[in-house]
What we know:
One of its GO terms (cellular component) is cytoplasm. By secondary structure, this protein is of the alpha+beta class.
Amino acid sequence: MTKNEPTAQPLGAGVIKRSTRLADGRDLFYYDDANTTLAAERAIDTRNLAARPETATMRLDVLTGDWISIAAARQNRAFLPPAELDPLSPQSPTNPSEIPSTYDVAVFENKSPSFGPALAAAFGDAPAAIDAPQGVDDLNTIDLGRTRTSVGRCEVVCFSPEHSGSFGTQTVTRARTVIEAWADRTATLSAMPGIEQVFPFENRGQEIGVTLPHPHGQIYSYPYVTPRTQRLLSSIERGGKDLFARILDFEQASERVLLRGEHWTAFVPFAARWPLEIHLLPHRHVADFAETTDAERDELAPMYLRLLRGIDALYETPTPYIAAWHQAPVNIGRESIRMHLEITSPRRAADKLKYLAGSESAMGAWIGDIPPESAAERLRTAIEGVTV
């Protein structure tokens, strides 16, 4: 297989970023661990790939003001393939996967994204005739039958070349490499014209809807500020720009604290919706990963692993979850929205899940099953028994 040496860039914590492209022109980035054993050379993607699907279309829901991306190409994505056909494993003679070489951490553009790939065509030096969103006023206008092109960008973040696992199964060194990748991608994606918010996340477990057991997450870069963040901005407008500082003080004084370090505190929130719900807040105001310091990232790596392993220690089998990194939008709210992690799981017992039925799904009116203080006590006990 033909080799090349991708452009190398040193990042924090000894991580090296290597930039290259896949056969159809999509970006691929390797993030090498500080103690990597990998050579600088990487294999070239020599696959004969079809053209990427057309960018999806967003439709306006006039009842809520939400924009719904209709991404039909996602119907064809891989569904629970066997290990020998894992599309996120390094390529082999019998597996023409998405990543040509072995790797520590790899990030690449999604082949069938919910948002993109027409971002450059819409906002480049010579914009094409693409019906992209044209700012806040355009998106806020309510009228029937409104559509816009789903410009943006979706990336896949592979935590390991192994076929199965999750973020929580990684080493501290590997977790630190992923955090460095999140920070690097947040900075780059936030600088792209047309991007309004960057969202790193991990879905874990078939109960959540995961279609690949490979340890990976995603980064969505939206052409608008998401509905959840718009509600947060509304709460800050009513509650004050220091809302997150007051939340941190309030939770640190409670019995719901799970872990507290020099830079981060993890807790079960006062009004937790889910049977398992953990929030993690930095002690100072930072809008996104790109604004965190090396010291904050260094502490985050083992603390995050302890939280995830603590969740898994509650039961004999792995617990499904969504780990969502809420970051401030690119252009608004950065002085008041503090980046934070929300880990949520529908698992309410060893063999029971919480389903979002009539009240939650139809009306958005939540009913909690487990008192947050009880959940915190169980989680603290579980976390005390894990090591990283």
